[in-house]
Amino acid sequence: MSNSTRASADLDAEEWRAIPGWEGLYEASDKGRVRSLDRIDNQGHHLKGRILKQTPNKRGYPCVNLRDNGRRRMAPVHQVVVEAFIGPRPDGAEVCHWNDVKTDNRLENLRYDTSSANKRDCVRNGRHQEAALTHCPKCGGKYVHGTRGRHCPVCAKAWHKAHREELTARQRIYYAEHREEINARRRAARAKARAASQPL
């Protein structure tokens, strides 16, 4: 079967459902397409239905322009597809692409999930900008994997050194400010130790 024949067969099996809030006006398909339906506008003009052109927004997600007598929505395609086939978005959820391809808005590639799950998809698919790095951008050291995830040993060593130096400096300042009190406690402790060591 040729590619064109296979594509034609896929479109023949395409399922269309009404977009919530735009029933009788627009439908989304499980193949990631959006179409308008034949209708008559408020001026009596007959408008023929058509497949809508998809235009990427600033974040690269394809969008379609939905309009009805002054009402307008620039709708991301992945959102209207899940709204039509899965239902309203649950609180705290977002639409996720299994393969992280923003232009692949087939129903089988979409789902509702959490933001953290969406980020895990990016890491798994090698599309997360930081996860794809192998070396630390700050010092050039190679990342290593530990029990708490990956880290840069060079930066970690420098941080611990600076932390120790800061702690030592704080201890010196505290001792200088409380020297008499500290020495008095030390003398009292030594006297108590001597008294305890003497026989009754």
Global Rg:
33 Å
Strand order of the largest sheet: 1-2-3
How many distinct helices? Answer: 5
Percentage beta strand? 15-25%
Give structural notes.
The protein is an alpha+beta fold. The chain folds into 2 domains: 3-131, Homing Intron 3 (I-Ppo) Encoded Endonuclease, Chain A (Alpha-Beta Complex), CATH 3.90.75.20; 133-200. It has helices at 3-12, 77-85, 115-124, 153-177, 179-197; strands spanning 16-18, 26-29, 34-36, 39-40, 46-47, 55-56, 62-68, 71-76, 94-97, 110-113, 144-146, 149-151. Strand 6 (55-56) and strand 7 form a beta hairpin. The radius of gyration is 33 Å and the shape is elongated.
Summarize the structure.
With 200 residues, the chain is an alpha+beta fold.
Q: Characteristics of this structure?
A:
Homing Intron 3 (I-Ppo) Encoded Endonuclease, Chain A, 200 residues, 5 helices, 3-stranded antiparallel β-sheet
Write the layout of secondary structure elements.
Blueprint (H helix, E strand, L loop, with lengths): L2 H10 L3 E3 L7 E4 L4 E3 L2 E2 L5 E2 L7 E2 L5 E7 L2 E6 H9 L8 E4 L12 E4 L1 H10 L19 E3 L2 E3 L1 H25 L1 H19 L3
Antiparallel strand pairs: 1-2, 2-3, 4-5, 6-7, 7-8, 9-10, 11-12
